[in-house]
Specification:
Elements: H1 2-21, H2 25-41, H3 44-58, H4 63-74, H5 76-81, H6 89-92, E1 93-96, E2 101-104, E3 136-138, H7 155-165, H8 176-185, E4 187-191, E5 196-198, E6 206-219, E7 228-233, E8 238-239, H9 241-245, E9 253-267, H10 268-291, H11 301-310, E10 312-316, E11 321-323, E12 331-337, E13 340-346, E14 351-358, E15 363-364, H12 366-370, E16 379-382, E17 386-392, H13 393-399, H14 402-413, H15 418-421
Helix pairs in contact: 7-8, 8-10, 10-11
């Protein structure tokens, strides 16, 4: 195992070194700094050391599966998100050609037939292994949003729910339309002192957020041992995320404490229908829009869909500055609706001059992501309510095809209108 890790590290170092040799000294330094920033920002060195230590201590027969399980146990919220991202369904989902149903699968049942019965194992608490979860067939094409609950709420209740959801890793990737449907679908649950909200071992069905009150979390002891208090939740906390991601048994018991507890709950089917329906709809919408963007017109279907799946959307109110000239850039933008004004400082006059007015289909921000300077070449401000689609630096570089790169480089160096060549 030690020799394998050493060879892997040597191979990675050799590949990076070979790649750097092909660059100019300035570009090489820029890449090295970017790699160091990435390792530091993501705390990857610490993670790699922890994984290697676990491997050397436990010496598993199947190291790859062991590493996957370790990451799931160590980062449950982050790994759960993979099951909800549409463009990852090639890894986690299997399509039934007979009825267009989608079977959401976990690692524990991915190699088993759909006809086999999957009995969830009893969770082994306080260990590094996670209980198995069952595949769940969800015919997204046959289920409409009309099956999703729409529970009336006051503005104050909606605001409280919104604040709590925005703190949850599971929901932070949702856009405003998805988040609104989630808020609408949540229903109230009132529990009194000592009422059981979740019982360990029961099938999971709902995710909960606490509007007011306290909830204690217990794990049953083995044999004659009493249940152990392992956690406590109070106002604006949430629990039960696993229930809306997997058809898994509850890993703990949650009991209302300190008087009445008011909760809001979201069921698993509603969450998945909202996520999948809106994601599929948005993918189709983005695909149609991107095909009309001149700079992307020569990309093939696969390339267009790859970009569509990676796009994020952000709204800007009138006169909102999207970025300023001179600051470091980390996003590439495409105007979806509305328009933006691009201005540059004229040093001779000591004032800003308008250099471009971009409307739907116009793009900006590419220069800072494609040059060593990484600096914005202009200030971009929303002109009226504006919606933009964007890619971060890492995703932009990953999806940058040769055809697209040539077009962008030609746009930066040619006598194109200022809207193309000066808004990075």
């Amino acid at each position: 195992m030690r020799d394998s890790i050493h060879r892997l590290n040597s191979l990675c170092a050799t590949q990076v070194s070979t790649h750097l040799k092909t660059m100019t000294s300035t570009r090489k330094q820029d890449v090295q700094e970017e790699l160091k920033r990435y390792l530091d920002d993501k705390q990857l060195n610490t993670l790699f050391v922890a994984i290697v230590e676990k491997l050397l201590l436990d010496k598993p027969d199947e190291p790859i599966s062991y590493i996957v399980q370790y990451l799931k146990d160590k980062f449950p919220s982050e790994t759960q998100l993979l099951f909800s991202v549409p463009h990852m369904r090639g890894v986690f989902e299997e399509h039934d050609s007979d009825d267009n149903c989608t079977v959401l699968k976990s690692d524990s049942d991915s190699d088993e037939s759909d006809e086999e019965e999957h009995e969830p194992r009893t969770p082994r608490l306080k260990t590094t292994r996670r209980a198995s979860v069952c595949a769940e067939k969800l015919c997204v094409d046959k289920i409409g949003l009309e099956v999703v609950k729409n529970v009336a709420k006051t503005e104050e209740e909606l605001e409280k729910i919104h604040t709590i959801l925005k703190k949850c890793v599971l929901f932070e990737q949702l856009d405003e339309s998805q988040l609104q449907k989630v808020k609408d679908a949540m229903f109230p649950v009132i529990k009194e002192e000592e009422d059981v909200i979740i019982k360990q071992g029961d099938d999971g069905d709902n995710f909960y957020i606490i509007e007011c009150g306290n909830v204690d979390v217990f794990i049953d002891g083995s044999g004659d041992n009493l249940p152990a208090l392992v956690n406590s939740y109070n106002d604006r906390d949430s629990f039960g995320e696993l229930a809306i991601m997997y058809n898994a048994p509850r890993a703990a018991t949650c009991i209302a404490k300190g008087g009445q507890v008011k909760l809001w709950a979201l069921d698993r089917v509603s969450f998945k229908v909202i996520l999948m329906k809106t994601a599929i709809s948005k993918r189709i919408q983005y695909k149609s829009f991107l095909k009309e963007v001149p700079i992307l017109s020569e990309l093939d279907e696969h390339e267009i869909l790859a970009i569509a799946d990676a796009l994020r959307e952000e709204s800007f109110e009138d006169k909102r500055v999207i970025f300023e000239e001179g600051e470091e850039g980390d996003r590439f933008y495409i105007v979806k609706e509305g328009s933006v004004i691009c201005t540059k400082m004229n040093d001779d006059k000591g004032s800003f001059e308008k250099v471009a007015h971009l409307q739907s289909g116009g793009y900006f921000g590419e220069i800072a992501l494609m040059t060593a300077s990484r600096v914005r070449q202009a200030t971009v401000t929303a002109s009226g309510p504006t919606e933009c689609l964007w890619l971060d630096r890492k995703t932009f570089r990953r999806l940058l095809t040769k055809t697209l790169e040539e077009k962008l480089v030609n746009g930066m160096s040619s006598e194109l209108p200022p809207s193309i060549s000066t808004t990075g």
